[in-house]
What we know:
Calcium-transporting ATPase, transmembrane domain; Calcium-transporting ATPase, cytoplasmic transduction domain A; Calcium-transporting ATPase, cytoplasmic domain N; 18 helices; alpha+beta
Amino acid sequence: MWETLRKEEVLKSFSTNKKLGLTNQEVLLRKQKYGKNKLEDKPKETLFMKFVKQFNDFMIIILIIASIISAGISYIQGENDYIDSIIIIAIVILNAIMGVIQEAKAEKSIEALKQMTPPKAKVLRENITTQINAEEIVPGDIIILESGSYVPADCRLIEDHNLKIEESSLTGETEPVTKNSDMICKKDIPLGDRLNMAFMATIVVNGHGKAIVTETGMNTKVGKIANMIIEDDAPETPIQRKLSQVGKILGIVCLAICVIIFAIGLIKDIEPMEMFMTSVGLAVAAIPEGLPAIVTIMLSIGVTKMAKNNSIIRKLPAVETLGSSKVICSDKTGTLTQNKMTVIEIKSKNLELITELSTMCTDCDVLYKNGKLQVNGEPTEIAIVQNGLNNGKDKTKLYQMYPRINEIPFDSNRKMMTTIHRVDNKYRIITKGAPDVLLEKCKNSVGEKQKIQTENLQMAKKALRVIAVAYKELDVLPDKIDTENIENNLEFVRTNWNDRSTKKRC
């Protein structure tokens, strides 16, 4: 609903002063009302409950009952032969202990991940901007959004300055979204189209702005997703279903045989207690008491091997489920890949020239904070600038030598952008964009263009994002700086880029 309101209306709803923020007293009251700004987990089970759950298997129950009956009869008859019962119970308990230990180890590992440095947030309170733990944020807080920071809660933007937020964790869209605090959205539009909102767990990749917190914790969009996960009970794994079926079949068959043998014994006037003991012994012998232990041991071995490869398995049966999987659906960006762009191949006769030209024709910001280099901008632009830095072409220094005096911004229809630089007494025009479109603006021969198109196709088949660069030099700039006067009669230069995968490529 907040996206449908003007920012002034949202500020009024939360009784928040845009310039001063909340008072400390108001913060305390809202903490009591809304709680901490964090996602909840499922209620933790005690070790005892985890131990008890290990016996929730039909076969295990039959084994326990049979061993107890066997021990009871031995005691009644005065034989004092409890070895079989003790072995069965020991195997069952060992099986349960191994399951509990593995789950406890996994939960400790997961908890360790959660206890890593909590995200920080800049908040305006009582006219003072302070940095606090994101958990301490309350609805109505004025937060400061800066490039590189996480959005700590769902919020309505009240200021934006070239603000772009990457929302792939929530919407799956890898391209940063340009935000607009003045926009008024229609009701029930998709999350990705709510340009006046910012959501928890997303990342600011460019620009800066201010926002008022509207939802925290489990009331955020991410929190609602987490709540669905908490409420959803995991289905049985294939091995659990099969073992359950085997246990039920064996149990029913054994009980049926025992009843039949006991009945036959009674018909033949055999001592009832003797026949009962025979029936119980048959049941115990027929049930494979070692099966649960063997399954647990094998799954534990699988978990141990996966742990060595940095894979945390919470439930033992999950190993078998993973091994039975034929198709695994996964988000690519940020999961199978690092959600970063990097230059992996350059095709040009003059590598130094193309590196210099491509670095200059970008909108990336190169900053030095506390002695550390920071590049902010679009992923592709960052890759280009970083490649320049790696090859001795610092954008800041290039702009000092060749000042950028004008530009024609990128346009999705044109699929290219152009920058104009002063080089000595001349002007250098640099254009970069999609190869097929840029080729039409170049003076290269037909044969050269065909070769370039072939190379472009080959690189595209490798799932590479291909970027072309072209340039020209002019003694005098035309009176009107536009696409018709500038983006023509260019000299083509070639290169390509790719989303960096987890496997390094040379």
